[in-house]
Every structure is written in C-alpha cells, then in structure tokens.
Amino acid sequence: MVNSPSQRTVIGQRLRRPDAPDKVKGTALYIEDLDFAGSLWGGVLRSPHAHARIRKLDTARARGVPGVRAVITAKEIPGRNVIPMVQSDWPVLAQDFVRHVGEGVAVVAADTREALAEGLAAVQVEYEPLPALLDMEEALAAGEVMARYKVRRGEASVALTRSDLIVVEGTYQTPYQEHAYIEPNGMIAAPDGTGGVVVHGSMQCPFYVQKGVASALGLDLNRVRIVQTVTGGGFGGKEDAPSAPGAHAALLAMATGRPVRLILTREEDMAVMSKRHPARVQVKLGATRHGHLIAAEIDYLLDGGAYATLSPVVLFRGTVHACGPYRVPNVKVESRVVRTHKVPCGAFRGFGEPQVVFAFEAALDELAERLGQDPLVLRLKNALQIGDETITGHRLSESVGFREVLEQVAAASDWKRKREEYARERGTVRRGVGLAACYYGVGLGAMGKHLNPAGANVVVAGDGSVTVAVGTTEIGQGMVTVLTQIAAESLGCPPDAVRVMEADTSRVPDSGPTVASRTTVMSGNAIRDAAAKIRAAMEPVIADSGLPWREAVALCVQKQIGLAAHGWAVPPATTFDLATGQGEAYVCYSFSANVVEVEVDTETGETRVKGVWSGHDVGRVVNPTLGEGQVEGGVVQGLGYALTEEHALRDGRILNDQFSTYIIPTPLDVPEIKSVLVESPFPWGPYGAKGLGETPIIAVAPAVVAAIHHAARIRLYTLPATPERVWDAIRALPPPGEAASG
Amino acid sequence: MYPTSFDYHKPRTLTEAADLLKKDPEARLLAGGHSLLPAMKLRLASPTALVDLAGIKELAGITKTGDALRIGALTTHAAVAASDVVRSSCPLLAETAAHIGDFQVRNRGTIGGSIAHADPAADYPNALVALGATVETGGAAARQLPIEGFYTGLFATGLGPGEIVTAVSVPTYGKGTGGAYEKHRHPASSYAVVGVAALVTVGGGKCTKVSLVVGGVSVNPVRASAAEAALTGQAPGDAAFAAAAARVGDGVAKPISDLYASGEYRVHLASVLARRALAAAASRA
C-alpha cells in the first residue's frame, strides 16, 4: 500500500542502519583505504614556534631531493592565501609570520613516504622568534579580542545588591577538549583532467571544503568537486578544520598533476587540528530564600587560539545560553573570545555551551546547598515553561518539555532516595548523585541564518527505488537512517526502497553544514518538501487505487508523470539585536537534564561513575536506537571532559598528543547509561522532531562535579576532576570538627 | 607512526642470540614486544635488528623446586596469573601478574621482558623485589643476580652486553605469611602510576617480618625500609599499618612527576596504597 503521510509507520521505528553491515565487517572505505593510481605522498612542514617572523624560506634543496615532486609555500598559492571562515584571517600556509606551533609553512609531495620525510626536512626556514601570547587573560589585557557579545536584561548589577538575596559567586576554568574522532583528518586530491580538482576526504561539511579549496586554487566552485568518504566521526572537528588539509592536498595535486594523499597521523592531528576552546567563566548568581532566581552576572572568556575559524559563532551560542533553561529576570552577560599564539580552536559538539553551562550549573548546585534546597526542586522551580522568556527575551510558545525531562530523569534514577541516603555515607569510598541541565537552540539561529536553508533532491526511479540527495553528511550519527525514515514516511514508500546518496558536491544540493543539531530538522524538512511535490504529482494517477508502492510508481511512469523534485527548507525568521543581546536567538530549543551517580575514594581522589540517567526533549524520536546512540556517545564524551581530558602545553606546544597521555574514557570506564527521551513536538520540525546531536554532552560535567560534591563535600571549579584535583580539594577541607562548628 | 626499517632474526639457542647482539650493538631482544614495538612506532627506539627469543625453548615454563619457583623468561603474565603452582605457593606474584596492563598485554607480555625493560611504571619488579627474587641470565654471561640491586636507573639494569634474562627464581611462602599488591593504574595504559607490593609474616600476634616495596614513585622499585621497621614487631592493626605507611615517603628523595600525577600526589598514593596492601597482606597471613 502507498501509505498516506498521515499514517505514520516508519517514524519512531528502530530501523537498522543501512551503513552498519559495512562498518561492522570492515568493508566500508575510509579515506586511508582509498588508493588512486600513481598517487603521491603529501605532507606539511609545521612551525616549531608559537610566534615568529619567517626571515627566510628556501625550498631549493627540498626540491632537489630525489622523489620530491612539489614544494609549495605561501607565495606559490595561485588563489587567495586564506581559508574563508567567519573572519578572513586564517592562511592556507603561513606568510611572513607563524602564529602557532604546528602552523603549516610549506607542503611537499613525493613518490614515497621516505622521500616526503626527507623533502620536508630539507626545506630551510629561518625563524626569528617573537614574544608569544599564551594566556587568555594576558591576551584580554593586550586587547586581542576577536569577538564580543552581550546580553542585557533587567538590571542584574542592581538586583544582586538586594539584601534579601542569597548570592553565590565563582570563577570556573575548563580545558581544551579533543574531538578524538576515531579517524584522523585526511584528504586525497586529484586533478580532474579539465582544469578542476576532485578532493576525497573525511569531513562534515563538503561545501565548506569546496569554498576553501576553490579560494586557494582561484577556481570557481563548479570546478571543485568534493566527495565525502565514509567518515570516522566529526564532533565538529571536521566542520571548519578540514578545509586546511583539503586545500593543502589540492594545491599539491594541481602542482604535480597527480593524485596526492595527505593523511594526518594521530599525533599530528592532535597537535595542530582544532579543539574545544579553553574557558574562564565568572558567575554571580542570586536567588530569593525561596529559591526563585532573580539575577545573574556572567563574564565568559574563551581562548580562540591564533585564528578565528568559527570562534565568534561558538561564543555567541555560549553567550545566549549562559543561564541555562531557567527564568532569570535580570541578566548581564559579557563574553569575549581572545586571540592567542596557540592552535586555533573551533567547532566542537556543544559549541560554546559546555564551558559556560558547567560554570552556571555548578553555581546553581552551590546555590541549592546555600538555600538548603534539593537541586532538583530548585531547578523545577525555575524551569522554563511555555509562555516564559529566555534570557534573550525569546518568548517560548511551543515545544518546551524541560519539566518532564527533569521529572523523568529524577524518577528513573531514584534521585530523592539516593540524595538522602548517600548524604549519610561516612566510609572511605562514598557515593553521590548530582544533577545538571541545559538547553540548546536547534540550527544556526540568528547568527547563521544565511547558512541555514537546506536543499534536497528526491528522484523516484521507474522501478520505484528512491534516491535522496542532500548536502549534509553521515558522520556516524545516523543521518542516512533518519533521512531514509523521513523520506519513506513522507513519500509513503517502504524504507528499503530509499537510498540516501553519499555527499558529493557535484551530485547533491547544498543543505547547509552538518552541525548545530540541525540535520534531522533541516535536511528532513527539505526532503519532506520534495516528497510533497512528488506525492502531489502522483495523487491524480494513483488516487484510491490501493496499489503497492512499486506498482503505483509503474503506473505513474506509464502515465508520463515526472517523479523527481527539488525540496527547499527555510526556517521561520528570527530577529536579534546584538546591541542588547535580545531577540529570538534560535527557532526552537532542545532540553536536557542528567543525573550522574559516582563513587569517590576519599583517600586517593579517584572517581568512578556508577550510572548516568540522561533525559532529552527531542520533539519527536525518529529512531529510538539512534537517539539512544547519540545520548550514550555524548554522555561518554562528557564524562571524559568531566574527569580526564585536558591538554598540557609548554611554550604553546601540546605535550600530550597521543591517547596514552590524552586520556579518553574506554568501555571499562563507562557505566550503564539510561536514555530518557521525551517528546514535546516542534510543529515546524519533521514529524515534530528537534535536534539531539549536542545536548547529550553539555550538562554531563556539571552533573559529575555535583555528584562528587554530594559524595565528598568538595567544590571543584576546574575541569577535569582528576584524582589529584579531587585529592587536593579533599585535603583542603577543614577537619570534621571545625566543619561542624563552622 | 611506522617504525624505521629493521632486520629480524629468530635464533634457536641463547648462544646464537648472544652472538647476534654482539655483532650488532643496536640490535634489541624481542620477547612479548608490548613495550618495545610501541616504542619503535613512536620512534623512541629505532633498533637496527630484532632478535626474537620465541624460538628458544628453554626460556619457557614454570617449575617448583623446594621452596622456590623458577619461571622462564618467556612466560606470559597471563600464564603466571593462571598458574596453579604460582597461585598456591606464591600468590603475591600471581596477583601482581593479574594486575598488569590489559588482556592483550597479559597474553603477550613476558616476565623476562618486564624484568629487563626496567620501566619505572612496571608491576612485576615491585613484587619481585618484595619477594627477594633472583634473576638468572645466560648468553654472554650466565649469572644469578639478586633482583634487589639489579636495577640501576631509568630503564637501566645490571645486565651486560649480550647478557640475556633466562629466568627468575622466586622464593615461595606459605602459612603465616600473606602478600598483597595494590596499584593506582594509569587510565589509558594500565601501567602502575604507583604500585605497592607487601609481604607480611605474622607470628605470636606480631608482624615478625615485613617486606614493602613501592614502584612508580622513583625510577626503580624502592624498598620502604622505614615503614618495614616501623611495623616489624608490632601487632597487626589499622593504627600500626597507618603508622608504618606514613613512613613510605622517607626513602623517596625526588619522586617522579609527570602530566598525570605530581610527585607529591604519587607519594601520597604510595602511602595510602601501602596501608591497604599491608592490611590485606596481614589478613592473608
């Protein structure tokens, strides 16, 4: 039967991922698996200095190395020496100055790996080291501000002086975080034989890479074809950053006339590719004795590194979400991202929220303690509901499932009982539970609205098989499966008739970037738009025939009905005033809350996470298995952020550039994670769906730290909560006798 | 990364192996390879040749003679951990072996390799020093070397050129004596950030003999003599264990400090783990 779109049969089903068998069997082809006949090895000579003037750059010797086919520096770039992002400051290759350790100075292509190493070593560079800004506070004092935002609502400073308020105050520090995608960045570029270039690679946003490559080569976009290969994870790290290796490989391919493979080692990827911004957040938060939030002042500072990439947009998202999903009538947020001589930070799942949410939620936990209130009760009391305004004055008229999320995670985790019972623990190893919450504006919102529309081409073949072409990408999150379900639902065809194509800029429309938890909503709506056009063409022919899908299609073919359509989705308008930070920052919000249970060894400072209950209002669950997958993956990444992940730097150089020293959670460290998916439909979203990509990581660290407080009575203001930091805080506690009297 | 290129030899006898080492001073012995191969991939080691010991039959196996176990150098950690004779006559060693690394490391890594590699974060040396083991060598020299004094610095031992660890001889213990191994494992590698081995003999209501060795805090295992002396002659009990454990730092002049843990924290961990190990050992005596 051709199902009517109102009879939902596919949405909400646990459809198996079409890409799963290949990935499980090892037959999926990642960039490293591809082999192009006659390809060369490409590599990058990188700056050893955080900041230096390039006095001399001589490639003659390198060019003479046997097997070396090309050496390219900034002056051999045929197009613009800039990777187009938010600000035009990021060079493809360093020109005159290097501004961070690892910045590309020259690229080399050679016949063999050995010749490449020899060629890179033979490039002669004379550096004049310059003083480097390595500290974000010093950069701020030096006026090196890339971008700043504010939110002004009510009179926060005045309100915080009210004598009837309980006020907590704190300064919080968060570290770098690695995306730790399972596959490092890599590209293979080849001339297309007609003056253009084809670049295959691991990436999230082929149309960003296309812009970067076209700009560097001085070509029109239609001469640059970007093909996304099966991609081993992105998490934001393959949003802006892959344009650099893409441009490097393409420059070498055009210079040599041969395919060039430029695949980063793990150590190189960790040392030079983008990361989550380190942050310093000052929070001052006041509430009445009954626990009604009255005012918040937040000063949010991000370390952007040497180039802006997407930092201003990251900062914007953090700024407008600074007070979480709560009603706060008086708010003052000042935020800045500063330029330092360190690796450029960029997009990362959560996008500027995890840092500020850690600070705000930690302050809220402290406030609950000062008020003598259960942290759950305090949050419920202030939770945003329909009819409330966010701190940017956005009145929420639909799809706010936050209360349900809080209530359901509390019930699922047995919050109340554990809160009371664990508070009485006195042993060496103590249990604790903590709670934290967040919300996340879905899509690109007011700051990125020109990038937000999405296209989709849907073609029904004569045999009834359906090809869906979108420019968003499968990066492991399950996009292909979700869009297959949406296409099947909206066309009324069986899901096994649908094939979502690999992203190839010559064959798919631009659907905007695969970021901001927008893919299900935006590409999904573009597909629905195309499907509606096809259905409209089919209806007069099939009417009430009751024919199965493939026979219905055959009948349409016979009647010469065209069954292909282009769909286009543009989200509802948003308005935002940057001068006051007031307006509709995003079209809608996903809501989340986590309960985390830990055990803390109070002698060694070791924390073991015993359970996580992670709740999310996602509007509508398209595929519960994939929803749970997003939640579990995000929570694990959040646990790493909370407990182990950080970089140590010396003179701007990252010291821990491998997984033996940059510590991520393994399956041995991960407890059972219970997903709680709440459906509070977003009417404009496909079948009510909102985004889920990012909420799972955001409010994990503050819940862990709150749980550690519950167990060990210590407040941590710096992430991650390593055993040594926990021990340091425990030994700083006053002896039990003093605590009782004080 | 990829290692630099190297030759590979698989000799059948110790003499052949020693000759290969003599001919090429940059050659290295390969046993389980779980320390050497990663070091080669990181280019921390670039040997010109690997001399694989796997073909030398006499290096395998566990035998018990009188009150000592003789464990061949190529015996894997998993084999020691699962060995009935080790578990019954020297449980501290089996317990330690079970703590090493992960499944893969335990299934490939060897006791001889661990002894000779002298990694400050290794587990075996701590237990072997506590037990008073003797290292047997062959090849260029055939000697019996007490393991206490065998270690001479960071990744350094008293082995001469061409001298190969062939076995380790470990005294067994029985009723009246208990052992325990406690460690703080590095979350990525499962190496011992700090590892503590304790052996306590209890008689007539007193701790009559105490052996306590701490690893990970210094470049080589350190015998915590002050702590041993503090507990010897005392009745076993929480206060006595705590008082002894508090002295663990006495013998550590300059503790190792790295990205994961400061020297001060390492000494603190050593003290906590020592107290737990002493208590567990005494309870098993």
End-to-end Cα distance of chain B, whole Å, is 48 Å
Biggest sheet, spatial arrangement of strands of chain B: 4-5-10-6-7
Largest sheet of chain B: 5 strands, antiparallel
Count of spatially separate domains of chain A = 3
Helix content of chain A: 25-40%
Structural category of chain B: alpha+beta
Tell me the strand percentage band of chain A: 15-25%
- The CATH topology of the largest domain in chain A is what? Aldehyde Oxidoreductase, domain 4
Shape of chain A: globular
Q: Write the CATH architecture name of the largest domain in chain A.
A: 2-Layer Sandwich
Uncertain residue ranges of chain A: 1-6
CATH class of the largest domain in chain A: Alpha Beta
Oligomerization state: heterodimer
Description:
The complex is a heterodimer of chains A (742) and B (285). Chain A is of the alpha+beta class. Chain A has three domains: 5-29 and 453-569, Aldehyde oxidase/xanthine dehydrogenase, molybdopterin binding domain (Aldehyde Oxidoreductase, domain 4), CATH 3.30.365; 34-131 and 179-272, Alpha-Beta Complex (Aldehyde Oxidoreductase, domain 3), CATH 3.90.1170.50; 279-445 and 579-731, Aldehyde oxidase/xanthine dehydrogenase, molybdopterin binding domain (Aldehyde Oxidoreductase, domain 4, 2-Layer Sandwich), CATH 3.30.365.10. Chain A has 21 helices and 27 strands. In chain A, helix 17 packs across helix 19 (701-712). The longest helix of chain A is centred in the C-terminal third of the chain and has 24 residues, at 519-542. Chain A is globular, with a radius of gyration of 26 Å. Chain B has three domains: 7-49; 60-171, Uridine Diphospho-n-acetylenolpyruvylglucosamine Reductase, domain 3 (2-Layer Sandwich), CATH 3.30.465.10; 178-284, CO dehydrogenase flavoprotein, C-terminal domain (Enolase-like, domain 1, 2-Layer Sandwich), CATH 3.30.390. In chain B, the strands form four sheets. Chain B has a five-stranded antiparallel beta sheet with strand order 4-5-10-6-7. Chain B has a four-stranded antiparallel beta sheet with strand order 11-12-13-14, sandwiched between helices. Chain B has eleven helices and 14 strands. Chain B is globular and about 60 Å long. In chain B, helix 5 runs antiparallel to helix 8 (124-131) and helix 9 packs antiparallel against helix 10. With 285 residues, chain B is α+β, with helices and mostly antiparallel strands. Helices cover 33% and strands 27% of the residues of chain B. The N and C termini of chain B lie far apart (48 Å). The chains are: A alpha+beta (742), B alpha+beta (285). Chain A binds chain B through residues 113, 265, 267, 603-604, 606, 644, 648, 655-656, 658-661, 663, 666, 669, 723-724, 727, and chain B through 1-2, 42, 184, 187-189, 259-262, 265, 268-269, 272-273.
